[in-house]
Structure formats: C-alpha cells, structure tokens
Fold:
Amino acid sequence: MRVTHWLTFIAFVALLVTGGEIVISHPRFYWGEVGNVNTKPLFVIPIPSSRSTVPTGYNYEMPDENGWSRALHFEAAWVAVLAGLVYGIYGLWSGHFRKDLIPARRDWNWPAYRDRIAKYLRRAPPDRVEERSYNVLQRTAYVVVIFVLFPLMIWTGLAMSPSFTAAFPATAALLGGRQSARTIHFFVSGLLLLFLFVHVAMVALSGFRSRMRAMITGYTRDAEEAP
Amino acid sequence: MKSPMEPSKNPITRRRLIRGGVAAVAGVAGLAAADRLARRYGLIPPDGAGIYGPGETLTYACQRLLTKNTPAREFSRSMISKNPFANAVAPPNDAFKRLAAGGFRDWRLVVDGTVAHPMSLSLADLTGLGLHSQITEVACEEGWSYIAEWIGTPLSGVLREAGVLPQTRYVVYTSIEEGMWGSIDMQDAGDPHTLLTMGMNDGDLPVGFGGPLRLRLPRQLGYKSVKYVNRITATDNIKKFGSGKGSVDPDYGYSWYAGI
Structure:
C-alpha cells in the first residue's frame, strides 16, 4: 500500500515534468477534434515554444526535449497505472476504500464540511478519532483524486493516442474530440498539482518528520509527539 | 521520556523468507516467460532496449493486441480542416529539385528486399494499382492535428504485387530526403489505411505535405508518415538498417512506435 503511494509519487513528478516539456512544443490549446496554428485556440500559454513553427511573440526558441520526455512520460504512466491497479485491487479487497476513504453517511452534508473547514481555519488539533483516521475533507479529497482525477487523466491520455482511439473511437468522441481531451488532460494535471501542494502543505503543518515517518514506515510514535 | 519503538508486527520469520523467495523466483520466471512469448508473437519493438524499453514494449504490445483488426478513425467530409498545417521541412535537395522540374514524371518507388519480384514503380504505375481515399487525422507528437482526405494506393497492394516472402517481419521506407527513413511491422503494412499517398483534398499532394509520395499511417503520430518516399524494402532483419532501432527517430530520442 505504502509502496504504491511512493511509486505513484515518483511517477507523478516524472509525468508532470515531462508533460510540461511536451506542452512547451505547442503551448496552445483547442476544443474539438482538431487544432493547429492555423485554427483559433481556446487559450494560449504565454511562454516561448520549442518549435519555430509556433507563433509565440517571443524571438526565442526553447530547446526541444520532446523525445525523452515522451518516452519517460509513457513509462511513468505505466508505473502509475500498474501501481494504481495494485492499490485499487488491494483497496477493494481489504476494505480500505470503504473503511478509510468513503466519507461516513452522516458526513454527507454541508454542516459537516463547514465544521471541518472552520476547524482547519482555527488550526484546531485533530480530535481522538481524527488522529487515527481521515476527516471528511481529507476523505473527500482522496476520493476525488483516486476515483475521478486519476481515471480522467488516464482516459484523456488514451484519447490522444491515434492507435488506442482506432480500437475505441468513443474514448475521444465522448470528450468532444482529440483536442478537447488534450485540454482536459492539461486542466486535470493542474488540479492534481494543486492537490499535491495542499497535501504536502498539510503534511508539513501537522509535523513533517512524524508524518513522513508514518507515510514511509506505516507506524506512528505517539509518545514522542507529546511534549 | 522516549518510548521504545512500537514492536514490529512483521518480524522476519523463516516462513516469510521462504514465501518471499518463492515469490521472487516465480516473478523472475514469469517475466522470462512473458519475454519469450512477446518475442515469439513480435510484441517487442526494435528499440525495446534501454531504460525506456519496458514502457515502449508495454505500450507497443498492448496496442498491437488491441488494434489487430481495427482501422484508424475516419471522419465525415464536413470535418476536413479548411487550413491544414504543413509542418516545416528541410529545403529540397538537388535530386528532388530535378524530379520536381520534370513534374515528378521520373519519380520512382523502388520495391526490394525480401520480395519475389523487386520493382520500380512510377506514380502512374502506383495509380494503376487502384486508388483509395480516406478522411483521417494527422496528429503530431507536439499536440496539434488536422483532418484531410488522402488519396493513394494501399501499401499492401504494392507488397502483394512484389510478392513479399513469408520470412518478412518489417517494411522499411526511405525518403529522398537524406537520412529520413522508418519502418513498420507487418500488421501496419497490411492495414488497408496504410496508404502510399499521392493526393490530398481533391488535388495532388502538395510538396509541403509530402508530395509527390508520402506513406500515411493514420494509426500512428505524424512523424511516422515519412515524406517523399522513394524506396520500400521488405526485411526479416531490422537490425541491418541504420543504428538497428527500426527508424531514424530513436537516434533523436523519439520512439520507433508512435501509436501513442
């Protein structure tokens, strides 16, 4: 379980860096099936490009790093997908999703979320239950990342593959086309990056060393945390 | 006071050690068996070695199995791009300029290698083999794309004429442009959408888009569709070509297989 977390972390960082590299070769985004420098973009990231054919307004061309970026992107994607598969099977089999991740029925309401947000804002320490398990906000964030954002990343990624869409045309068609898939892929990677920031910030706020130890070894040393 | 470490719940016992050992041996044996099977069924790409080899191989093997009988996506006529984008190409060499001056009447496609009847075909010969048209998308690895109608003769027809020998495993295609070449496996070579393209959107294929002759492979990214093709070589040993990785692309860090 913890091994899959860290494998996914390494893969995610690799995917993020290489994905950014690939975007640099065409920092324009479109909606629909097709899009190129002769069509109207949905939006443009105002950075120089690694290709001279892309008009960016900069008189500067970035180095082309697409070759290894693409190779590493797909290899890291395989690591993430295989780790996710192991995690998913184990999570279902062990009841981890049901016990630890799906918010309790009584928390499926706005006051539960509001109370927890207020608690974060007051920087109130976790209560006894929360010390040992996730609170409703954590659960919701994890469920969204694991069951919505990561699957959406895989789907939109595959929808850009000319070979995969030959076998399953609906993967691209349902999203509105190949360029829509690329645009969604970009936005969801942004949401995942946002999650990473908040996740790491929360770990840091709750005591970086003790949390890291828990995340790596699986054990907490309660006595040491007491003053 | 510092409390002692929580006692480990997972002491290393003899049983655990044996179980781990058996699992490791089974894992290695399983990988070795998978490797043999993959080799047997041609699921390892020519550039399937090195640090990115596992990723390349997994992608290629999975997509090969998935696309066995599925052609590329085709689109309606109304979806043809009004302003298709021709990517930058190197300035034409003298040989190309000479042929262009003659209206490409002397352009020849040489077909050789592991074939029963090596051939040299003019564009008119290729047209005579029967024209097909398809409306498919060009997707560049950079991220952009466009849709066009492509007219040409399927590579499979040319290979049938030449009588490809049974030991053939790859078809190498070479451009008149210095150093530009690629190769495909027999599944792609036999795909009816793999087109020796001479026309685009009701006209001759413009030079900017690879005219007079481009090998279009709509199930792979644009860079596999080499422009200005003048030679097709069937082979049973891809290692003999270039640096042995199946195309010029791995020399620049790009994958031989571009289905993703």
Summary: Residues 19 and 73 of chain A are 7 Å apart (CA to CA). Residues 223-227 of chain A have pLDDT under 50 and may be disordered. The longest strand of chain A covers residues 28-29. The two ends of chain A are 31 Å apart (CA to CA).
